[in-house]
Amino acid sequence: MANVDDEVPDPSPEAAPPSRMVVVSNRLPVVLTPVDEEGWTVEPGAGGLVTALEPVLQRIAGTWVGWPGVDVRQVEEVQELLDRGSGDRGFEVRAIGLSPEEEERFYLGFANQVIWPLFHGFPERCRFQEEFWDCYLDVNGRFADGIVDELEGEDLIWVHDYHLMGVAKALRERGVRQPICFFLHTPMPTLDVFRKLPWRLALLESLLEHDLVGFHTERDRENFLHAVRCLLPDEAVEREGSLVRVGDGSRTARVGVFPISIDAREFAETAATEGVRLHALRLRQALPGFVDEDPDSHLMLLGVDRLDYTKGLPQKLRAYQTMLRRHPEMLGRVTLVQLVVPSREDIPLYEALKDEVDQLVGEISGEFSQENWSPIRYEYGQWAREKLLAHYRAARVALVTPLQDGMNLVSKEFCASSVDGDGVLVLSEHAGSASQLHSGAILVNPYHEEELAEAMHRACTMGAAERKRRMSKLRQIVASQDIHWWTDSFLKAARGDRSRRERRWPRPQASRSDPVVGLSPLARGLRSHSAPGEPGAAAPGGGDDEPEGSGGPSTLPFRLGTSGTRAGDGHGYE
User: Do 89 and 236 fall into the same domain?
Assistant: First the structure.
């Protein structure tokens, strides 16, 4: 059995936490399942955010605010059920309800058909509807009301992700002066993409109401700061250690880079269990022509993706098809196992994507299948954790090739689960994890399908010594920069911010150049063509002809962790 302790050190020392914390996310860290017309079962949630923050809340006490996935009319009943389980959890849970109409307009509408495609660089897929925006503000206001009800003393408020970017503004309007922090789990788009949002000024100004704003990569932070410099030119932007502070005289926000990660030790320990080892062996033995004594006799390529146009599934499948055409010697020697997790099945765009993926799988199978060999095994559904880790351990090559991703934790899960020290990671340069894993992965541009095809072939034919050298480096990075390191890094920055909260910069002598200053956030957000920094307006710090991210703090390096890699060398989850 692999010696996990050789490569996965203990988590870094914990940051001194705040006295209390209120965590805010779209969904709660519990799963509610109706068992009949009048009852529910409550089970613990899973995922990286729950793994990271539950221990902190249990240690310091606090509340998690979010939507339990039920109708607003059922919230009172659900809240009573959640309150009864608070003792076992070690922290409180506050449920925020949504009506069916709000779920349609806020969640499926603005969050998933405006912000999600826009922030991933697909503005042509956006539906800019005023009713979506109005509902987004209303729901963010309801979250703010729920937070206010839970606040005590100097609680730290930590808001997560694109669903809730308007919460800070709503909290300040309600008189909240406690520190508010925010972390964006998606990429931050470039200015030319972000300026297409009709309500861009309102969102920017709400984000700047936070005391600390965190991004996955340096490039995401620079995209945000470039938008601030061009669209809100009266904001002063200055470096403060590893952070950048932004202020207009009335308040100050600090902006940092904090790449999220996984519980590397837990993944490694589970992958090293006898059950997972035997499951992985059975997966390999099921490959046609595989011989136990010869691990190169048949190779598994693995893809694990949500069904989403940002994940590049059609591009990956076409590249695999190209590899088999160009390298016929690989026929019968490799199998692509593609696991696809259902997502947003109520949106027609995703139904069309599934049809395209199904068709490509059929084409590849029809073109290359032999009597005892199929080039691809495609599974659509959900998988138990042990099965997923067995696939990670069985695979020779992991194909993590999103068109754009905030982080992509599959890349890190594969590395942590590769306890045999063997395996090759083919990673999109547009995944946020490329900023940390570039030194051990094969980086590719997923839009260049021929390049991706050759990267697949290179990974399949790479020698054992190089594979193990690369994987050792990847495992060290993932182990040293794990989910506990991420939480500690963010909370240390938030703790430092609390000692600076009373410091305010002098308001600039000149009046704000924005001709609509003083209007409501909605009115300001609607102004779409005359903001400073846009065509026809002067933009201190760079205009339209300036390359994205040029000037300002982008020239200053920012290092995290112990691997010696610089956050921001690549381009950024979920």
Answer: yes
